[in-house]
Amino acid sequence: MSKPRIGIVISTTRQGRFGDKPAAWIRDIAAARGDLDVEIVDLRDYPMPLFDEPVSPAYVPPTNEAAQRWGRKVAELDGFIFVTAEYNRGPPAALKNALDYAYKEFNRKPAAFVGYGGVGGARAVEQLRLIAIELQMAPTRSGVHIGGADFMGMYMQGKTFADLPHLDATAVALLDELSWWAHVLKAAREATVAKAA
Predict the structure, then answer these.
(1) Helix H segments across 35-165?
(2) Total domains in the fold of the chain
(3) CA–CA gap between residue 187 and residue 77 (Å, rounded)
(4) How far, in Å, CA of 171 to CA of 165, rounded?
């Protein structure tokens, strides 16, 4: 079985976003492990309008071209790390919109979370875990939460992840769980396809 392909999804599309930094950081840690094939997936590359499809993607593929490309990208991945800001106690609208534009492509795949902001994005991550369950995903328990002084130190004071080595342990825990689930669910999906053939 090939290594699971993991998409590291940057949740925001706005100028001056912080999400590029934790996305690159978790990508580098994950790539160094050797058990996952990781790539950054930037929602800027999929400029989907606010969801306006006549039927849910659970039943009919979307008509929007960017959404179709997004669905194909999601389908080729075996799991996800959502790098998310917290806006008004929830996930950014761009990410929620992207999640609404696909369904079957997310099914039976693990989801892990790197949150950042005042409380480490914890409230956004909590909502995303519920959304992931509705998409028939397997959200993992361990996550990375970059909050308070750590977030402000990087966002406003020029600190880097090298200045915050305590976050590395949370990244390892996140990736250990994600890897286990990604391997198990990939094997199960492939066995289901083989059985149906």
Answers:
(1) 65-76, 93-100, 122-134, 148-157
(2) 1
(3) 13
(4) 10
- Cα separation of 68 and 72, whole Å? 6
Is pTM, for the whole model, over 0.90? yes
Percent of the chain with pLDDT over 70: 100
* Planar angle of CA 43, 46, 52, nearest 5 degrees: 105
Instruction: Record the tokens describing residue 29, joined without a space.
Output: 């840690």
Alpha-carbon separation of residue 157 from 23, 83, 154 (angstroms): 19, 21, 6
pLDDT average, residue stretch 126-132: 98
List residues bridging with 138 in a β-sheet: 110
Give the range of the structural domain holding residue 154, as residue numbers without chain letter. 5-196
Backbone angles phi, psi at 169, to 5 degrees: -65, -35
Q: How wide is the angle at C-alpha 66 spanned by C-alphas 60 and 72, nearest 5°?
A: 65
- Contacts of 37-40 with C-beta under 8 Å, sequence gap 24+, read 37/2, 37/3, 37/4, 37/5, 37/6, 38/5, 38/6, 38/7, 38/8, 38/81, 39/5, 39/6, 39/7, 39/8, 40/7, 40/8, 40/10
- Looking at residue 66, which CATH number applies to its domain? 3.40.50.360
Asked if 81 and 7 touch (Cβ cutoff 8 Å), the reply is: yes
- d(Cα 21, Cα 106) in Å, to the nearest integer? 25
Cα dihedral across residues 59, 53, 108, 34: positive or negative: positive
Mean pLDDT taken over the chain = 96
